[in-house]
Design a protein that fits this description.
Length: 270
């Protein structure tokens, strides 16, 4: 084999190796993208830093999260989630732990015993509120309980302009209140005029109070994010042996005693 032939074979061999490596890399990349959410790392999947305000920022965000996932044991996971919420300065506003019977079967195994087989599922809907800066930390802590992730939705609503609008409306309302109050004290002569002016003043005060309360509510939502969780577990089967209840017929006298009692009653009546 001459040098030219050897060189050609070497080039072909190197090309084959490079092509194989590229195919392996492409397959690995496709596999990574095709990996389902449920089999991916739960912590990285549900974690989010959406709209976390940077330091010295004037923007205000209302952050909420909705997550549904399967756990090994709903009761245990509920306790862990509630403890984590308290640990990071939050609180639970709603929890509804329930068992739902899907199927119940009774099999008589002896004259006095019955085997009861119950198939049921357990779920819980939980609503918690946590400090806005701790939302992502709490979500990462909860992620450890995930066995299968159904969905995760995180929202961040920018309420900066809305809160500014409310403050400006409060200032205008306060200025109007002062002018009306001054007009009542200085120019209000007739009773009807005074009554109308007072009613107008009360309306302005109510509007001012409404804007104040709305801003307080928005500020509360900014400070504490709302996290809604739907957790469930696989269907559970429970078997229990129970005693059979005796029929009322078991306590009735035999037919001979019934006939004898009937004859005695008939004789007494006769």
């Amino acid at each position: 084999m001459n040098k030219t032939t050897k060189f050609v074979w070497a080039v072909l061999l190197m090309g084959t190796v490079v092509a194989c490596k590229q195919a392996e890399n492409e397959n690995a990349t496709e596999a990574a993208y095709d990996q389902p959410i449920a089999s991916a790392d739960s912590t990285s999947v549900i974690s989010s830093s959406a709209a976390v305000e940077p330091k010295n920022s004037n923007r205000k965000f209302v952050r909420t999260a909705d997550i549904k996932f399967k756990v090994k044991n709903v009761a245990k996971s509920t306790t862990i989630i509630e403890d984590a919420t308290t640990k990071f300065g939050g609180f639970v506003t709603y929890t509804n732990l329930q068992s739902h019977i899907n199927e119940e079967d009774k099999t008589k195994v002896s004259p006095d015993s019955t085997l009861v087989t119950t198939k049921y599922t357990v779920d819980n809907n939980i609503t918690i509120r946590v400090p806005n800066t701790q939302l992502d930390t709490v979500i990462k802590s909860i992620a450890k309980q995930i066995d299968f992730l159904n969905f995760r939705v995180i929202k961040a609503d920018d309420v900066t302009l809305q809160m500014l609008s409310n403050k400006m409306a409060q200032k205008r309302s306060t200025a109007t209140e002062k002018r009306i109050a001054t007009a009542i004290d200085e120019k209000g002569k007739k009773l009807n005029q005074v009554i109308d002016a007072e009613e107008n003043l009360d309306t302005k005060k109510e509007q001012n109070d409404a804007k104040t309360i709305e801003n307080l509510s928005l500020q509360d939502q900014v400070n504490f994010s709302t996290l809604t969780l739907q957790i469930y577990q696989d269907q559970t089967v429970k078997q229990e042996m129970v005693a059979n209840e005796k029929s009322t017929n078991a306590y009735r006298p035999n037919i001979g005693l019934q006939i004898w009692d009937g004859l005695k009653t008939g004789w007494f009546i006769l």
